[in-house]
Amino acid sequence: MKPEVNLQKAAAGPRDAVPAGNPDAAKDAVTVVDPRLLVREQGFAGYLSEFRRRIGAGDLGSLPVIVGLITIGGVFQGLNPNFLSAENLSNIAVSMVATGMMAVGIIFVLLLGEIDLSVGSVSGVSGATVAVLTVTHGMNEWLAIAAAVAGGAAIGALHGFFFARIGAPAFAVTLAGLLFWLGFMLQILGENGTINLDGDGVVGSLTTYHFTDVAAAYGLAALAVAGFFLAGFLDSRRRAAAGIPSRPLSDIALRTAALAVVAFAAAYMFNQYKGLPLAVVLFLTVLVVTDFVLRRTPYGRKVFALGGSVEASRRAGIDVTAVRISVFAVAGTFAAVGGLFWASKIASANQSAGAGDLLMNVIAAAVIGGTSLFGGRGRTWNALLGVMVIVSIQYGLALEGIATPIQYMITGGVLLATVVIDSVTRRTQRTAGRA
Fold it and tell me: Residue 387 and residue 391: Cα distance in Å, rounded?
């Protein structure tokens, strides 16, 4: 009978188990905390040491892009004093929205470690759809826009289905999509190949409308600063209440002050020309919403998880197929939205829409901004930084009368340098045990 009793005790659950060892020693035990979490409580000295540690480990973040933007601004301003004028900066801000919108969608795909080559053609289909439905068939413009965006989402989901469900490589699927949807766009545009849009319509106003009241730009800047401070403050309070290391108030105030300088400087610049552009407001709204989705929702965490390891995500219970399809649907949606901004910019839909260097610029914007080609690392704000680099270079070279081929070469060089930095960074992180 004695062995049976021992077996029953051994099989007893955790609730029936008797604590072993020295209770006093367990009582005085100290929980080990990751030293990186203590940075928030150490103030500026902690952030300085953390910055040095990250640089030493190869985690450069957005630093190269910010340095690049400052360099670009300084060089081109030295060559031409009109580069940093309010008119030129406002034009750059409006011009970058179309590419930036498409780059947001590409970032979702890149986070999976995949690529979508069809976004240029899908953007062309979007502009052509709106033009045909409104001009040729007289449909309400809002309905036509909804149809174009829904069509982009459906196209992306179709690509995702072949990739995630059938198992075809994303590169091959989207390359086929690039060709198919390009032909589809040419087909629906007809023999003429160009359909002019109403410059005062909804699509036409996307890149031409400005909020001329100075209160609009300053009000948006104040709202952004207040929202940033409130979000940081509430997050810090929640962490402190849960006993988790949190940012000191001085750190939140410093970050808010830095944002305030940038935001109000931008507002002042816009008000020196035509006012706050509608396109910029829409782009910033998209960035805020998508960043929240990626960083603060279960869906966003699933996307990052797939970028880290598909097999680990599957074992964790994530529906890999559904997430993959949805990500390509997101890319198609933003490709369609970007196509509307391109159609607005040229006030028409034509055969050249979605062609040329658009696809390369979209991918370059995402990668230059800091999104890794290897998946698992990036933010939608990278689209803003990357597209600012590309469009600033294009406008700066245009002011100097540099030919288009040279612009292509320089943009390609910047993209290559970014990819090299990304590769070296990952190698350094792997060596430091952080990859």
Answer: 6
Domain boundaries defined on the chain? 61-212+274-431, 214-273
Kindly report, residue by residue over 194-221, the tens digit of the pLDDT. 888 888 899 999 999 999 999 999 999 9
Domain 61-212+274-431 annotated CATH 1.10.3470: yes
According to the model, what pLDDT value does residue 105 have?
Answer: 95
- Token code pair at residue 184: 């589809």
- The amino acid at 19: P
Helix extents (H) in 272-403: 278-296, 298-308, 310-315, 320-346, 358-368, 381-399
Query: What is the signed CA dihedral for 152, 155, 161, 166, rounded to 10 degrees?
Result: -150
CA distance 173 to 118: 9
Stated pTM of the model: 0.84
88-113 residue pLDDT tens: 999 999 999 999 999 999 999 999 99
E strand or H helix that includes residue 152? helix 141-161
